[in-house]
Amino acid sequence: MTATRVAVLLPYPFDRAFDYALPDGMNVAPGQIVTVPLGKRMVPGVVWDAPADSSVPDHRLKPVAAVLETPAFPDTLRQFIDWVANYTMAPRGEVLALGLKANLLDPPPDRYGWVAGAATPTTKRREAVLAALAALDRPDTAALAAAAAVSPGIIRAMADAGLLRPARRDQGAAKLDPDAAPPILSPDQTGAADALRTSIAAATFSVTLLEGVTGSGKTEIYCEAIAQCLRQNRQALVLLPEIALSAQFTARLAARFGAAPTLWHSALSPTARRANWHAIATGTAQLVLGARSALFLPFTDLGAIIVDEEHEAAYKQEDGVIYHARDMAVVRARLSGAGCILASATPSLESSINAEAGRYRHITLTARHGGAAMPRIETLDLRATPPERGKFLAPPLIEALAANLAGGGQSMLFLNRRGYAPLTLCRACGHRLNCPNCTAWLVEHRAHTSLLCHHCGHTERQPTLCPSCSAEHSFVPIGPGVERIAEEVADLFPAARRIVMASDVMTTPDQAAAAIRAIVAHEIDIIIGTQMIAKAWHFPDLTLVGVVDADLGLGGGDLRAGERSAQLLHQVAGRAGRAALPGRVLLQSYTPDHPVMRALCSGDLASFRTAEAALREPGHWPPFGRLAALIVSADLHDVADQAANALARTAPRSDVIVLGPAPAPFAMLRGRHRRRLLLRAPRGIALQPVIRDWLVRADVPGAARIDIDIDPISFL
Ligand SMILES: Nc1ncnc2c1ncn2[C@@H]1O[C@H](COP(=O)(O)OP(=O)(O)OP(=O)(O)O)[C@@H](O)[C@H]1O
Ligand SMILES: [Zn+2]
């Protein structure tokens, strides 16, 4: 008798589904989640649509152990996983693992989130929590703390005091209400909202680029698209580039829809993850706010995907499955028959070109909401008015800070560099302190009294003797990081209330939420931060922004250096003067005539993009052509060279241009030696088949690893 075979894809780095035998009396359909033996373990897997693999004889097949009660993986998600694996060339099981983890599959927790208890609040803060609770649907601690703008400790204290009790699963979930608190839109905004509503109402695939200046109300407008999606009983997904933003957005969405969105990001507790995953898989979660991995959730019926700050490089996942969440959001929307909305004040060249070519719809908003003016942006020429020796703030910026402080205004200093100093040098011999594992300098972090590699995490104490010349106490910090700027500000304005915001000092969304609350409440005078403070924040009292080093992003020879720099600095500038008071922005620069500085000061980013496009089009550089990178790495540099040369010898010859091999931007990273080959081709040519064929032909030593990065965005 022949066994009934079923193909099961496992969430591990295997490209294909494996065959298992279906025991008598057990029935499965594609998408169902099962447990199967793998070696000595029992692992979860998804019944896949792949044809049976007859190479394994029946008697060697292992049986499916159990079919889980968990809702099945929808067809659209399986198609998406196949598509992503095929495009990124990652093993299909590894892509599956982005959406399926063993610990998600247990039944959802019985008690989850909070409801009001019997006791009566005694403080204003506790009252505020209960008020926020009334507007939310059994939020977990983090969501409730964010909505009420208190610390999570308060929530726990309230539970101890009987003001809050854990919610039970069987208590019906409050629904989001599309009409809970709609804004009154301006005529411009109304036009944009109508267009988005119509595209969502059509319940078919479309992509819209929502381009609007900072503070124009893009968030309010895409909420109208979400409202439409909710009215049609379809699920909506909002992607954010950084989880630190999720607290402020949770509160905004909860206020708009009368109940909190369902969160999805790496900082959730395991219980919250499991509860949220099940809510999404059963369709009770109507609106999901998440990081890029939320694209791999088992939505039952996804009607809208919004990618906020679509130009952000943070949407590119750089390890494991290397994918761009903005591009994959478009694919997910297509497979789901959903509307995709890409929102930005500074769209990527990719999206602008797609909009211009008519592949995407295009909506633009040119004015800030409520009559707020765009900030005045000026360069501050560091050649003419340099900072004092060993300092980094030039006199005109110091004056502006002093005046703003005296007038009760809030200021922000932006420097996209964590730590105290990016380089530590021996004064006696010039020796630089490098990472032993990477081609990189060690960054001094005074907050942790250590030197840190930002690439591999290596830390060490500063040596007392120079390892090169044995001079004693000879090390000097070179250049500034945000900690050093904070020190300079403390010297200049000892009475000013300061806060440093950077990913290494604010590691959780809760910490970020507490900081944001303090800033909005104007308990802070000067905010000093990295790119963490650049995005999407709305600080009503912020009127002065100083960019400490506007030239920083322009070096490095990266294809997108200019574009990225313009986007980032425009975003930072856009934090200023968003409410009643006008904003001013000072860009400290040694190259005030650079096209990026000119575009920022004039506000004419469109012309800048046109100029960028003109530079890229002739050579088929993205977005006018296709690019892929092959990164060869090995423990020994000989092996890395051998592998890179083997690839070079068999390089495809056709319309595809192969550049390299060259040392990768970090010739050594985490102790591995790296070489890079770059493939470039006109838009009409798919690079994946070329690469597949090439890898079969090339004789690459087994000790070398090859990582494939389709559409690379970080490279030299
Ligand atoms: N029609 C409206 N009614 C009331 N408030 C509005 C309206 N439109 C915008 N706002 C408010 O103006 C501020 C800026 O709007 P929003 O954050 O949506 O802009 P944005 O375009 O997303 O900005 P950015 O690109 O800088 O993130 C917010 O506080 C928002 O609530
Ligand atoms: Zn390192």
TrEMBL record:
Name of the protein this chain belongs to: Replication restart protein PriA
Enzyme Commission number(s): 5.6.2.4
Domain of life: Bacteria
Residues involved in Zn(2+) 1 binding: C426, C429, C466, C469
All residue ranges annotated as the Helicase ATP-binding domain in the record: 199-365
Name of encoding gene: priA
Keyword Zinc-finger: no
Cofactor binding note from Swiss-Prot or TrEMBL: Binds 2 zinc ions per subunit.
One Pfam family named in its UniProt record: PriA_C
Organism: Acidiphilium acidophilum
Gene Ontology MF terms: 3'-5' DNA helicase activity; ATP binding; DNA binding; hydrolase activity; zinc ion binding
InterPro entries: DEAD/DEAH_box_helicase_dom, Helicase_ATP-bd, Helicase_C-like, P-loop_NTPase, PriA, PriA_3primeBD, PriA_3primeBD_sf, PriA_C
